[in-house]
Each structure stands twice: as C-alpha cells, then as structure tokens.
Amino acid sequence: MRVAFVGLGVMGFPMAGRLRANGHEVTVWNRTRAKALDWRERHGGDVAESPHAAAEASEIVFTCVGNDDDLRHVALGEDGILHGLPPDGILVDHTTASADVARELHAAAEASGRHVIDAPVSGGQAGAEAGTLTVMCGGEPAAFARAEPVMRAYGRAVTLLGPAGSGQLTKMVNQICIAGLVQGLAEAINFAQRAGLDTDLVLATISKGAAQSWQMENRWQTMAEGRFEFGFAVDWMRKDLAICLDEARRNGAGLPVTALVDQLYRLVQQAGGGRWDTSSLIVNLRERQG
Question: Which residue among 20, 200, 242, 281 is the one 20 to 30 A from 148 at the CA level?
Fold first, then answer.
C-alpha cells in the first residue's frame, strides 16, 4: 500500500521503518528535514517537501507529532495533510493528544469525504522497534478495518474502542494507571533498600505474584541502580498527565493520585531530569531522605 508518515521522532522513526520493512511504499516528512533524509538512507522510500505532498499519493497517512497544535498544523494547515489526502483517504494519528483535537480532525475530514482515526500508542521506543505496540483507536469501523492490517506492522494489539476521541481517552486511562504504578514501585524499591533487603532478590520474587506489572518487570533494576538516561521522558509524561487532568476537570473524574504524581514529576524536572525516563520518580525519595 502507498502510505506516508509525518513526524519522525523517537516513536515515528521506527514505526515508519516497520511499515517499510513490511513491504509498504512509504513517503516521509519531518519538520527537521535532516531526520527525514536519515530515515530514507536507512530504509529507502521517499521524502516529501510538505505534509500536503506526503499525503497526495497516499491511501493512508500516519502522524506522530508533539501536541495538539503540532497536529493541527500538519493536518489542517495551509500545506496540511487533509488538503492533500485523496478522497476516501485515511489519516491515522498516533500523537498522544486531546480527545477534542481528535474530534476536530474527524469533523474536518468527514466534511471533505475523508477519514480520521485517533490512535495513540503504548509500548515505548522498544515496542515501536519490535512491532509490539498497543494501539488504541477511535473512529469509524469501516476506516479502521482498512487501516488495522497496516498498523499491524508495529502493533501487537490494535483495537477500535469507539467513535472519534475514544483512542485518546483510552490513552489517558493508560497514563493514569502508569503514573500511580511508577510512584508505588519507586516507594517500594526505596523501602526495600533502606530496610537492608537484597533488592534484586525481593523484586525478582514479588514480580511473580500480585505485585507484578510491566513497570516492575522492565524498570525495577534500572530504578534500583539509579539509571534513567533512556525511555519515555518525564517532560512527555507531564504533557500527557496535563491532558488527563484537563479532561478530568471536564468530566468530573477525581484524579488525586495522578495530580500528586504530576507534581512529583515537576520536582524531577526541577532537578534537571526532564529528559530522564519516567521511572526517575525514585530520585525524589532518595534526595528527600538521603
């Protein structure tokens, strides 16, 4: 299939590569052109001069950019995707953004005979590279049925959860879960170390029981060692939690733990850890109690 990918960041770069490796004809565009040229050198394919140009010959255009405003720019701007996408074409957006912008894009596409699927992902850079992402989708069933087989290039679980905005709302649920889990894990590891326990043995043991989680399996060792120069950045997590908290204010959901963890991430940022992995929450406990 002829597809395009707009936004070649930490996630978009390997996701576009997975599409190419699965036999699709891929055109890419990135705000920093050098990154697009680097992608072409590694994977082949074409580099477009604009999001509009990337979309013109594509059946599906995938996006993965920074935030709502970036998404509006590449999708709705004068040189945007929805002005270049052929009739009945599909825009699949993998940005973690608000449900409002997802519905806004869906309405704009529907008015011009095109389709939008909001499809934020979970699984990090490693999941993008391995093709094991969880993809949470909102949109029309017919458009999803066309795009889902293509998303399988990088998604192990690709699920339609409801109408436009449902994918973004589900990603908010995902981030709310993660925020509390990481803080709990940070407190547990700090407690184990201060109690004089063999932390490796303790975590290896309890990870086989009811305390088990992805965060524990993949982050306890680096947290115990104080290594955070990798993974999903604190800056990005705070952006995501701001979206969650804003939506909660509108729908009346109480998020006391999420609000607290957001402020704990603010402390990590103030300590210079904005680009550290989200597991760096343990730094707050060590600094305060050290």
Answer: 242
